[in-house]
Structures are given as structure tokens and as C-alpha cells.
């Protein structure tokens, strides 16, 4: 009884405190996921709402480069088919909202017709292109000029350019550096954060340039899982010894009420962590104590018994 309420009670209190610390670590893990997902949303919003600063001469150079690019003829035909409006009733079916939409068969038929039309225009010299048949490609500037539309120039940041006069070049360069800094920070912290985490790959020794939030979460998840398993193993070994002592006292609980409360609290915390943590780590078992742990706890009880007998 002295062993149960002395050394073993002290170990129970220690494990209870350690379990609470693992609970805090799990809170950090959940926080890391929330931060990574929020950073992902901020980065997406930054990328689509930002306007890339550029001087007028830089923009014209990018526009000229884009005009020289070659587009596969199937991609050009797809763009024309997406804009096609003259669908017959026989070509359509009702979508989920009950609205008419072209069938796959009709869509591909029109796409092939558009591709044949584009080939004829290239062969006639109306459009500039290279190759033949399925391998034909059309010059971007020629294709969009034929459509009567400007050549699309895709910025690295956002969906549009902020074109400024050449005499504001220093201002443009300064804002571009600011944007690159912000985007680098967002790229470092943002990640999709799919669950469960990859628990098998080696952990990063140095913080990665991107996906830092994901790597930090993996480190925390590995540590919490190990802590839950270790504390559970030790607590179960103590509980087994307490059960043996209780049996020797004809089934009367030998633990003080407060100590019994600490033991149940620690078990409850570890069991709850085990259940919640598996969403992050995937399934894992709460291990039974091995013989080494059982022997260590048994020696603590035996030593206390000898101390009482000697006293």
C-alpha cells in the first residue's frame, strides 16, 4: 500500500503531467494545420488579386515573346469550341440544373470541325503555323490576331499587369522585390496539408524553402505519437502493479482517491489523444508494457516493501 501511494503515486502524477504536455503539443499540431491552410488561402488570394508591376517596354517585350509561342492545333480548336454558341437542339442534353448543354459527342464533333478549319487556314497562309495533321501548331500572335483579340500575356503574379511608364522603372523594381518577398513567405508557410500526414519519410533537418508548415506538423506529429505510446506503456505497467496490490488486499482499492483520480485523468487524456491524433498520423496502437517496463515498475514496489520492512 505504501508503494502504491508513494513511488507509484509519484510516477502517476509525473505521467499525468507528461500527458498534459502531449495534449499541448497536439494543440500546436492543430494550430500548425490551421496556419498552413490559412496561409494557403492567403497565398491563393494574393496570387489572383495582385497585379504584377512592369514597365511599358518590359510589357511589350513579353507581349512579343508570347506572340511567337506556338499553340497545338487541338488547343486552338478547343478554345473555339468553348466559345461556340450555335448548338442544335439535337446536340444538347439537360445538365444537373436542367439547362441545355452539348453532349460529349456533339462537342468533340464540333472540335474536330474547328481543327479542320484551322488547318485549312494555315495551309492557305491566313494563319502562321508549323507542322501537319495532329502535330500542327499555330503561332499565338497570328491566332489571336485572326480572332481580333490581343495576345494574352500571363504575369507571374496575379491575373493582370500594372503597366507603368518606363521612367518609373525604379518604383517598379522596388515593388517587384516587395511582391517577391511576400510571395516567398507565403510559399514557405502555405501547403495543402492533406491528412493523414506522411509519417514514414525522413524528417527535414533544415527548414525547407517551401511547405515549412507541413514539415513542422510532421515533426510534432511524430513526437506526440511517440509520447502517447511511451506514457501509455508506462501507465499500464503501473496500473498492473496497482491491480496486483489491490488483489492482495482482497479487492480493496489501495490508491488514495486523489491518486486514483490522477491515474484515470492520465488514462483519459492519453486515450483521447490517441483517438484524435490518428486523423493526423493514421492508425496506430496503444502498446502494452513490455517485460522491461514491467520489471522496472516491479522493482520500485519491491524496493519500497524492503524499505518499510527495514524501518
Describe the fold and architecture.
With 311 residues, this protein is mainly alpha-helical. It has 2 domains: 2-44 and 203-310, no CATH class; 53-156, no CATH class. Helices cover 65% and strands 8% of the residues. It has 10 helices and 7 strands. The protein has helices at residues 2-5, 7-49, 56-68, 73-83, 104-123, 140-147, 169-189, 212-248, 257-281, 291-310; strands at 51-55, 70-72, 92-94, 100-102, 129-130, 137-139, 160-164. Strands 2-6-5 form a 3-stranded antiparallel β-sheet. Strands 1-7 form a two-stranded parallel ribbon. It has a two-stranded antiparallel ribbon with strand order 3-4. β3 and β4 form a beta hairpin. α2 (7-49) runs antiparallel to α8, α2 (7-49) packs parallel to α9 (257-281) and α8 crosses α10 (291-310).
List the helices and strands and how they pair.
Layout: H1 2-5, H2 7-49, E1 51-55, H3 56-68, E2 70-72, H4 73-83, E3 92-94, E4 100-102, H5 104-123, E5 129-130, E6 137-139, H6 140-147, E7 160-164, H7 169-189, H8 212-248, H9 257-281, H10 291-310
Parallel strand pairs: 1-7
Antiparallel strand pairs: 2-6, 3-4, 5-6
Helix pairs in contact: 2-7, 2-8, 2-9, 4-5, 8-9, 8-10
Amino acid at each position: 500500500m505504501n508503494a502504491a501511494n508513494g513511488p507509484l503515486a509519484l510516477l502517476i502524477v509525473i505521467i499525468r503531467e507528461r500527458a498534459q504536455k502531449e495534449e499541448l503539443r497536439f494543440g500546436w499540431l492543430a494550430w500548425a494545420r490551421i496556419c498552413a491552410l490559412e496561409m494557403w488561402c492567403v497565398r491563393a488570394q494574393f496570387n489572383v488579386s495582385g497585379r504584377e508591376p512592369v514597365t511599358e517596354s518590359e510589357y511589350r517585350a513579353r507581349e512579343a515573346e508570347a506572340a511567337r509561342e506556338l499553340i497545338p492545333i487541338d488547343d486552338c480548336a478547343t478554345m473555339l469550341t468553348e466559345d461556340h454558341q450555335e448548338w442544335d437542339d439535337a446536340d444538347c442534353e439537360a445538365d444537373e440544373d436542367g439547362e441545355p448543354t452539348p453532349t460529349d459527342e456533339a462537342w468533340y464533333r464540333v472540335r474536330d470541325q474547328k481543327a479542320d478549319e484551322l488547318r485549312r487556314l494555315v495551309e492557305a497562309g491566313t494563319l502562321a503555323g508549323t507542322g501537319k495533321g495532329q502535330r500542327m501548331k499555330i503561332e499565338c500572335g497570328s491566332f489571336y490576331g485572326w480572332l481580333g483579340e490581343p495576345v494574352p500575356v500571363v504575369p507571374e503574379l496575379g491575373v493582370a499587369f500594372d503597366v507603368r511608364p518606363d521612367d518609373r522603372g525604379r518604383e517598379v523594381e522596388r515593388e517587384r522585390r516587395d511582391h517577391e518577398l511576400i510571395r516567398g513567405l507565403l510559399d514557405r508557410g502555405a501547403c495543402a496539408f492533406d491528412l493523414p500526414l506522411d509519417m514514414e519519410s525522413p524528417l527535414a533537418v533544415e527548414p525547407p524553402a517551401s511547405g515549412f508548415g507541413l514539415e513542422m506538423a510532421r515533426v510534432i506529429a511524430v513526437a506526440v505519437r511517440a509520447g502517447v505510446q511511451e506514457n501509455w506503456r508506462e501507465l499500464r505497467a503501473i496500473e498492473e502493479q496497482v491491480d496486483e496490490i489491490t488483489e492482495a488486499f482482497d479487492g480493496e482499492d489501495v490508491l488514495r482517491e486523489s491518486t486514483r483520480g490522477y491515474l484515470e485523468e492520465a488514462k483519459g487524456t492519453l486515450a483521447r489523444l490517441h483517438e484524435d491524433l490518428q486523423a493526423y498520423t493514421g492508425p496506430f496502437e496503444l502498446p502494452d508494457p513490455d517485460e522491461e517496463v514491467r520489471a522496472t515498475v516491479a522493482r520500485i514496489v519491491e524496493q519500497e516493501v524492503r524499505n518499510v520492512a527495514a524501518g
